[in-house]
Design a protein that fits this description.
By secondary structure, the chain is α/β, with parallel strands linked by helices. It is built from 17 helices and 15 strands. It folds into 3 domains: 65 residues, no CATH class; 208 residues, Spore Coat Polysaccharide Biosynthesis Protein SpsA, Chain A (Alpha-Beta Complex), CATH 3.90.550; 144 residues, no CATH class. Helix content is 45%, strand content 16%. The strands form 4 sheets. Strands 5, 6, 7, 8, 9, 10, 11, 12 and 13 form a 9-stranded mixed sheet that branches. A two-stranded antiparallel sheet has the order 1-4.
């Protein structure tokens, strides 16, 4: 693996970027980190803020900022010219059940005609595949799941890059060409586009447009566990072949969650994975409520096997001791004491940052914002993973019953308000509750099957360590 970015690349600051007062300190990244800057570092930071070409010798600082998700690369014209579509082979895992799916596959293959080649992996489909022209077809003797299908296709690739594309995905003429320049950073192993749901007029389709689990949003990110974008779905990936080969491909023992596992293994091996919503593709949503629930449950089932492979990374919520104390006091109806604990946490953060007087105001904001984020984390866990516990407790306590209802409806209503989908608030909230409940049911199913409770246990840290 090569050593990072070239000196010609430019960067933009992440939305978390803050450089207060005299500019020798930066707070940025996910989770939030503090960087102390030398005079040369301040010059580099100013260039980043203005999206200008960087001075010589920037690499040490920009590598740290890239790894933290504090900055993001801007591809240059030279990068766009350097990478051609004929360096990419499309690998399409296919489990075809109907004539309509066969036509969808044929259309997808046609949209990849400018690439080096197309490998279609027939994962023991019950329906005959259509005529796919010059594409190579690899037929599996038994249905082995997406990981095995992707590996079978990977074995037939001889190009520098691989585009993994699911059958129910549509790509535009520039989807792949928009992603390719990000590989100018030799540490980048994977770039994922934004996956949007195709427009439909059904309630389920309208919900998916606003709240699809495949859509990671409009903000680019360094993809890594414990960050704002902790994984990217493999509905559409562009990968460096050498990076996948160094890890021997996907883990075929995983029927779901194999994409999360691959992203985290790439990161552990020193590679970078990026989410770049500047590139887009579209995905067909599930057509029935039953298929929707089955999909969400399958995602939840992957949590337990992943937790065994990646200890500590599948916790449903993460807190520090200050945050746990604050919210337990609120739960036991001691709000004024809870407020005192939250203020004490802010004071503790201020003491840790006292050698940076310019952060005096920021320290309280960091601590209070961290407390708020911990509440969001707890509410998410109640809705998605802990809801069986919460439901049982709600039957015996009026206060906990009210908390459970607020936790279920509050975030759903807020999401509806911010996204303004073509659904009324009631139907959107009901769909969100079903979405969360189905995922949580899958988690519990996986917990029972694998006999591990790791996906149910929160992570409690001693301190925030200057992170939000």
């Amino acid at each position: 693996m090569e050593q990072g970015v070239t000196s010609a690349v430019r960067f933009i600051a992440d939305s978390s970027w803050r450089r207060p007062t005299n500019g020798n300190v930066v707070l940025a990244g996910s989770p939030l980190k503090l960087f102390s800057l030398s005079q040369a570092g301040q010059t580099i930071a100013e260039c980043i803020e203005r999206a200008q070409t960087l001075p010589a010798g920037h690499e040490v600082l920009t590598e740290r900022l890239l790894d933290a998700g504090a900055i993001h690369p801007i591809p240059s014209t030279g990068d766009s010219d350097r990478f051609a579509l004929n360096t990419v082979t499309a690998v399409i895992p296919a489990y075809i059940r109907t004539a309509q799916e066969a036509e969808t596959l044929k259309s997808l293959v046609a949209s990849c005609s400018a690439l080096h080649g197309v490998v279609v992996v027939d994962d023991c489909s019950p329906h005959t595949l259509p005529d796919l022209g010059a594409s190579r077809v690899v037929r599996l003797e038994k249905n082995s799941g997406p990981a095995a299908a992707r590996n079978a296709g990977f074995a037939a690739v001889d190009s520098e890059f691989i585009a993994y594309i699911d059958v129910d995905v549509k790509i535009s003429s520039d989807t792949i060409s928009t992603m390719l320049p990000y590989f100018a950073d030799d540490k980048v192993a994977l770039v994922a586009p934004r996956v949007k749901s195709l427009t439909t007029t059904t309630v389920l389709g309208e919900y998916e447009i606003a709240a699809s689990v495949l859509d990671m949003g409009e903000t680019e990110a360094r993809v890594r566990s414990g960050t704002r974008v902790s994984y990217v779905p493999s509905a559409m990936w562009l990968c460096r072949t050498a990076a996948l080969r160094s890890l021997s491909g996907f883990d075929e023992s995983l029927r779901s969650g194999e994409d999360v596992d691959m992203v985290w293994r790439l990161n552990a091996a020193g590679w970078r994975c990026r989410y770049q919503p500047q590139a887009e593709c579209s995905h067909s949503p599930r057509t029935t409520l039953q298929k929707f629930v089955q999909q969400r449950m399958s995602y939840g089932e992957s949590a337990a096997p992943l937790a065994k492979r990646h200890p500590g990374k599948l916790a449903p919520a993460t807190f520090n001791l200050w945050q746990v104390s604050t919210w337990l006091l609120v739960l036991f109806d001691m709000p004024f004491i809870a407020l005192g604990v939250a203020l004490a946490a802010a004071a503790s953060t201020a003491r840790k940052l006292r050698r940076f007087p310019q952060l005096r105001d920021e320290s309280f904001r960091i601590a209070l914002h961290g407390t708020f984020k911990s509440a969001q984390s707890a509410v998410s866990a109640i809705n998605r993973v802990w809801w069986p516990f919460a439901l049982v407790l709600a039957l015996f306590s009026q206060r906990l019953r009210a908390l459970f209802i607020v936790a279920a409806l509050g975030p759903a209503v807020y999401e509806w308000w911010t996204k303004r989908p073509h659904l009324d608030v009631l139907r959107f909230a009901l769909m969100k509750i079903l979405d969360n409940a189905a995922y949580g049911a899958g988690v519990w199913k996986g917990v029972i099957a694998t006999r591990t409770i790791a996906p149910l246990i929160p992570t409690v840290k001693k301190s925030a360590k200057n992170e939000e």
